[in-house]
Specification:
CATH topology: Arp2/3 complex 21 kDa subunit ARPC3
Shape: globular
Number of domains: 1
Strand order of the largest sheet: 1-2
Largest sheet: 2 strands, antiparallel
Number of helices: 10
Structural class: mainly alpha
Distance between the termini: 46 Å
Length: 358
Amino acid sequence: MRSCKPFAGALIIRDVHVPDGFINAPVSVAAGVVAAGAVAVSLRGARRELDERTAPLAGLVAAFIFAVQMLNFPVAAGTSGHLLGGALAAILVGPWTGVLCIAVVLLMQGILFADGGLTALGVNISVMGVVTVVVAYALFRGLVLVLPRTRASVTAASFVAALVSVPAAAAAFTALYAIGGTTHVPVAKVLTAMVGVHTLIGIGEAVITMLTVGAVVAVRPDLVYGARGLTAPLKLRVDGELVDAAPAAAPAAGSGSPKKVWIGGLVTALVLAGFVSFYASASPDGLEKVAADKGIDAKVEDHAAADSPLADYGVKGIETARLSGGLAGAIGVGATLAVGTGAFWVVRRRRAHTETTA
């Protein structure tokens, strides 16, 4: 949950961050097993995706998604939404690493900020991490295969993939609710409401994903996993025949470093979380709106980390709302970056060890 503070008489919940009490214990445990299995498989898969350049960028992607998730944007009268990030992570750093990025973000949010139930962590990872990544990346790859091999095609495919992934996550949550919901609301009503509002939220998700992917592709397409192999070999006409041009000379040592992209991304994440988040929409988001309207939040439970010094995205003891929220956002970006980068470097080192042994 984003906040346990009352707003318009309701409990403010992050969009599709399922709190404790929505789904019963057996289904929550089953979702936890699925999430744990997905993370384990993704750890193995990420070894093939991460190298010495992309490992630190993967940690940055997790931190950036954490920051952007603090920016709720209005989507309808009295309703807001925010980035889920599965499509963005999968396209930038690969589907296996993308699942791990979202898992890191959700873990940090749940433990430090009391955002998303701890017993519902498996539900949130399954819905926001696994479903969004699988749906988005499968659709993205399919579109890239049929579209011209250009940067514009990658950007357009990222828009469509992100757009579809959000209502897909909403439908997945509805399926879990149908099996293990703690309240008795007709599933058809929940599905219609969830998919409807999250289709609108998906438009915002698609715009953010498209702009971010487009910005990185414009300066360093080689760092975008979904754009690898995008540039076709240069052709020269020799004696009337087209032949591949000789590859360019290798860049000087250090010139291929993604340091500038890393610094720019980190500064952007800190500005978004530490400053821009103060101006985010305070309207209830998609899940909270549906939960309140349909009554599926009747048995919601207090978060186990509600007394955390950073609960509700504010620093306890600091009375100034702008300073408290901004500092909490900056701490969240730093913590997510540190944990994510550390985890991905470990995965990368295991890959290097395996290659050396082989």
